[in-house]
Amino acid sequence: MKQLQKGFTLIELMIVVAIIGILAAVAIPAYQDYIAKAQATEAFSLLDGLKTPIAEQISNDSSNPGGCISPPGAVTGGKYLAGIVFTPAGTPLTGCTLVATYQTAGVNAKVSAKKVSMAYTIVDGAWACTSDLDASVKPKSCI
Predict the structure, then answer these.
(1) C-alpha distances in angstroms, 54 versus 76, 105, 118, 139?
(2) How far apart are CA 119 and CA 38, in angstroms?
(3) pLDDT at residue 51 tops 60
(4) Which pLDDT belongs to residue 60?
């Protein structure tokens, strides 16, 4: 009489565990990069939303350095951002710089305490972006 095999052998189970371990070793770092990119986008989203109101304030009264202030009702902080600082440039006003700083706790190491800066120049009406974020999480449009 033949005996039928019931269940898995030890070697089969060990092979499955090894495959799962290899997949986890590849997936976890990729997931961490994905999380860092998602956290980095918060500053760019908030700063992009401030571009139009700031440019409008400055164009309405460029002689007033008060044009480079947070617009009423503007969101200047977030889950991953410590805040956004508004700095007027020149007297009379020649531009405005917005600097977003990421929090130091509760964020990925690639974005922790990093800064994103958007500078507006009245002469050409253009915004320039600079950042000290890691190149793997920073958008290509920002230097």
Answers:
(1) 13, 29, 11, 22
(2) 23
(3) yes
(4) 78
